[in-house]
Amino acid sequence: MIDKSSPIPVYFQLKNDLVKKIAQGLWKPGECIASERELCEIYGVSRMTIRQAIGELVQEGVLTRLKGKGTFVCEQTVKQQDMMSFTEMIKQTGRELKTEVINFDVIDTPDDMQDIFMLDKVYKIERRRIVDGECIAVETVFIPVDYCGHINEEMLKGSLYKILENFGYSISNSTSSIVAADITDEVKEKFNTKENFPVLKMIGKTFANKNKLLFIEEALYRSDKFTLQVNISRREGEIL
Question: Pairing relation of β-strands 134-144 and 121-131?
Answer without folding.
Answer: antiparallel
